Amino acid sequence: MRKILVWDLPTRLFHWLLVICIAGAWITGERDAYDWHMRFGYAVLALVLFRLIWGLVGSETARFTSFVRGPAAIRHHIDELRRPGRLAPHAGHNALGALAVLGLLALVALQAGSGLFTSDGVLTDGPLVEHVSGSFAALARTIHLKNFDLLLILIGLHVAAILSYALFKRLDLVRPMLTGRAALPGNIPAPRIVSLVRAILVAAISASAIWALVRYA
C-alpha cells in the first residue's frame, strides 16, 4: 500500500467551502440576517457552477465520467457492503457516493436557485423577483423553504454513511478529503491531476457568472 493523491485541492476546497456556506446560509436565515444569507447563497451558486464545470474538465476523480455508474455498479457495491470485511480499495467515489454527489448538487442548486426568485413580501427580495410573476415568486419561496428540509435529510444520510463506512468497513473517507491522499495498493494507478491554473480559470468564470447574474439581472 502507498499513499497517493486522490482528491485535488480544488475538489477539496469546493467540498469544505460548500459545507461552510450551507451552514452560514442556515444560521443567517434563522437569525433573519438576510444580507449575509443572500451572500452565502450567491457563494453556493458559484460553488455549484464550479463543481459542474470541474466535473467535466477537472482531475480524473472529480470528473462525472469517472464515478457516475449505472444500476449494475450500484448493486455490486451494495452486495460488497453486505459481505464481511473491508471493501475493495478504489480511487475516488464509489457507486453510492456518486448518487450522493449528484443528489446533493441537485438539491443545493435548487435551494440557492429558488432563493433568487424568493420574496418575504416585506423587506427582502431575491435579485430576480422583479422578473417573475407573484405566483412564481410564491412558488419559489415554498420550494426554498421545503427543499431545505430535504437537503438536511440528505446531508444527514451522507454523514451517517460516512460514519458507517468508518465503523463497519474501517474505511476513512474524511481524512482523504482533508489531505487529498489515500492508501491504495500498487496495482491501482494514481489518478490524473490537472493543473491548478485550470481550476483558477474555472473558479473565475463561475464567480463572474454569478456576480453578473446578480448585478445585471
UniProtKB/TrEMBL annotation:
- Keyword hit for Cell membrane: yes
Question: Which processes are annotated in GO (biological process)?
Answer: respiratory electron transport chain
Molecular function as annotated in GO: electron transfer activity; heme binding
The answer to whether the entry has keyword Secreted is no
Q: Which GO terms describe its cellular component?
A: plasma membrane
Q: How does the protein's chain sit in the membrane according to the entry?
A: Multi-pass membrane protein
Q: What is this protein called?
A: Cytochrome B
What are the entry keywords?
Answer: Cell membrane, Membrane, Transmembrane, Transmembrane helix
Provide the protein's localization: Cell membrane
Would you indicate the residue range of the signal peptide? Answer: none
Q: Which InterPro entries match?
A: Cyt_b561_bac/Ni-Hgenase, Di-haem_cyt_TM, Hydrogenase_cytochrome
Alphabetical list of Pfam families matching this protein: Ni_hydr_CYTB (PF01292)
